Amino acid sequence: MNIPKLPIGTAIETGIDFLAVHLAVITKASAKVVEAVLRIMESGLLAIPVPGFIALAVCGIWLLTRDRKMSVASAIGLALIWNMGLWPATISTLVLVVVATICAIALGVPLGIVVAISARLHKIVMPVLDIMQTMPAFVYLIPAIPFFGLGKTAAIFSTVIFSMPPAIRFTCLGIRQVPAELVECSVALGATRWQRLLKLDLPLAASTIMAGVNQTVMLALSMVVIASMIGAKGLGGEVWKAIQRLQMGHGFEAGIAIVIIAMILDRVLQKLGAPKQKK
Amino acid sequence: MTKIQVRNVYKIFGPHPKKAMDMLAQGKSKAEIMAAIRHGVGVHNASFEVQEGETVVIMGLSGSGKSTLVRCLNRLITPTAGSVLIDGKDVMTMGERELRQIRQRKMAMVFQNFALFPHRTVRENTAMGLEIQGIPKAERLSRATEVLALVGLETWADAYPRELSGGMQQRVGLARALALSPDILLMDEAFSALDPLIRRDMQDELINMQNTLRKTIVFISHDLDEALKLGDRVILMKDGAIVQIGTPEQILTSPATEYVARFVQDVDVTKVFTAESVMKHSEAVAYLPADGPRAALRKMRKHNIAYLFVVDHNQRLVGIVSADAAASLAAQGKDQLSEGICTDIKTVLPSTPAQELFEIMSDLPYPLAVADENNKFKGVIVRGTLVAVLAERGGVA
Description:
Chain A has eleven helices and no strands. Chain A is mainly α.
């Protein structure tokens, strides 16, 4: 018996093509705007002399974490990147990561709140998140191209999609973990849902949400590298170039730079997420 | 005045409460309904009233529906059927806004596990209800500080809940409720999570506080001793239904059902105790002929009582004088008490079994004097304390 192939791929393609045709005018235009903004940010950051930038960054890290060892390690790491000649690529990657993360969090956290509150949405969104997280990251690159064309906007678009699930998941989890007796107490005190969210849910969920933000940043960083295939450039672009030219040394240098950035971001965010020791 | 009126309240847990209600109407039991359609009967036809200033204890074992019932009062749980009237207004027909109003200002709740907000200081926790009412920060914090002084925690105002012991945490819970100046306090097993000694202290404090504040209190407890000690009346629940409502004496002396009887049998220490063991050694007596009406009145005021036993210089009991009698003597300018003394009073011997005291005291308008064979004054038995003392010792014995 000959079972015909189900037209899943065709259906998705038709759908996306349809959207692309009708939305391309808007999306392509917005891609231009985004790219211009990114360029301004990059050149702005690159205008700062590198030693000054490193000094500023280390000061910032110390102020945020109050961890001397980490500040020194960050200084050495950043200096190494500069030394390897990867500074411009690093700044470009950082800008992409920061912009993509801000978008992912701005979308993910509110969505997580809504999903935590509505049982019905929770049922719908959770499996979608499962799919989003298990889908191979590369797949997100493909639909980004018809909408935004090759380039950084497409990279940011696929990065946001790829890195948003933990922000949603952790926000939802944090809010659902608020002890039932505290929820009951706030209702008994006559709080509105909005008051409950601001005075109880979000403060108690804060450290969980920060853990989600940390994950989002890490995923964004990894995706920004992958997105070099569709023109994200930056450190990922260096790796991608090294693969195509089989330059093992250069590939590893870019890899090390990515590791340094990842570690700095991770540690700083972990420190911010840890519940503050009051008194 | 009737403050709370609960009429035929039912609460069914499950997706099809109607089915379970029909089965209840057919006389099926809670267990049968659970077995047949897996619906829980939380509250089964509960009706009772609470008067203003009264302390009512709803008591029962876990699963008896007492916590569900108290949550029906402020509609944390919406009853399946019936009505709950607070000051004559039915909370069942209230809209969201009106319901919030009532929760914010009229009824405050104290929880078994304290339910303090871990990210806020003691003071901020206390001010939480006021914050929700939208009262400006400076005002609500200063009010919180006042209430904290009332529960003896003013020095801990800036600490976080986790730094406090259980008893102190519950004081914060109580302060948070009192900060709202509510008419009604709902206390859900408020002292159950505390150590026995701390629990007793808190009970005593609540009784003291209640003497001045006169709130309407609905107190949930699974502890009969606590119920008898705190309650002006006690409501006994089993399987979601009310099995008896009565004063502590009524519950102890005439249990309505076998179940209540079994419940109270452990407390039935009345046979063991005698008048001597439950009486108070009262210093509040008037001496003849030294004390005149004014001195008697002063002693009554000092001890916050409305009567005074009168003894002669040999400690022999002469009679009792009421505040009214002493006041009218004083108004007439008399300086002797003798005219105002009621000499025809009931006394018991120190060896009288406590069991008989209930009957003797049941229609006595004033406290019972304990005197020995030579009519020498030994002490006083007050109705409320009789039950409390018995309950407390029964728990220890």
